[in-house]
Design brief:
Layout (H helix, E strand, L loop, with lengths): L1 H17 L21 H8 L30 H4 L14 E3 L1 E3 L6 H10 L5 E4 L1 H4 L3 H9 L3 E4 L12 H19 L2 E2 L1 E2 L8 H9 L3 E2 L19 H16 L7 E2 L7 H16 L3 E3 L1 H4 L6 E2 L60 H13 L1
Parallel strand pairs: 1-8, 1-9, 2-3, 3-4, 6-7
Antiparallel strand pairs: 5-10
Amino acid sequence: MVKFLASSFTVLLLTIAAVKAQINPALYPKVNEVPPIDSPEVVAWLKEIDLTGAPQIELHKGAPPACPNPPIANECYWTCDGCAADDITACAAPNTWGLTFDDGPSTFTPTLLDYLKTNKLSASFFVIGSNAIQYPDTLKREVAEGHHLASHTWSHHALTTLTNQQIVAEMKWTEKAVFEATGLRLKYMRPPYGDINNRVRFVLKKLGYIPVDWTGDAFDTNDWRIPTMTEAQVIATFSKSLDTYVAGPKTKGFYCLEHDVSSLTVNVALKLLPLGIARKINFASVAGCESDAQPYQAGSTAPMPTLPSGAAPSGQPSPTKGGATPSAGAGGNGTTNGPTILNPQNKSGASTVAVSGVFAVAAAAAAFILA
């Protein structure tokens, strides 16, 4: 057993050292733009999948797109129709806040990570590829501190406005960026603006992705509306949503819409999370909510992280549970707005997280390598 642990420790350190090199943005598409589909990389990715049989649904227009009137038959358009198909829209764990943050990483993400670490909370970060290539060390820190990474596309364009090939480019470039930084292949994704229909779902499934929406408008924190909406209004509105939730049966948890893209959204997150703690709501990442012990796709070169796979109250370690197939929750109806994407310049650093046994030593060594 000691030899096995020592070997695992060595493999972990070698893997972390291998991903120390910074990503070269020159090898990636232009940030915040839909990647071209005629690049050698995208041409190769398209040859790996069969998109024949995709639903023939007309592309939507707008940023974000307006709802079609009348609705398109058999489209199952979550943003406008509240049709979720088999998307995940509710945390499977009872009395649990499925903690998710979109649009990062940014220069403000480390502040949020500090808070989550202090309060022993795990979250899923739906990252934008255009931002990921600029902050690879933040991605590494998120993984090192027990958080879960997922995709939010390359450029944050509404997916129902893109061709099937463009959707592939958006997803695969983001996947490549995160893989280069961490050695992990993403498995879960959240569509920008919650903009998803059956055609988009078809392409995502071909790529091995599981869509995760949020649990309806009541659990959109509206942080992206600040400063048009005041911080006090955001807090008051979301407090009412939490009160309504805790007064109910709480048989399922919920996923919120929050962002780590600006100082405004991060600052309000630091005030919203204590509201859940005060109401004795548990917290978990998507991997924890869905009890998924394999929260990344096959083909990852880094060891599969041991993520907290059960909900836990603030300040307590999350219990570890066996893996389970992610389950779809109840249908939701989401907002069609969102924050703009930053184009940051500076990179953030990494730090350690306390874990048990030999991996505590590994985490400390990882922090030393990544510093």
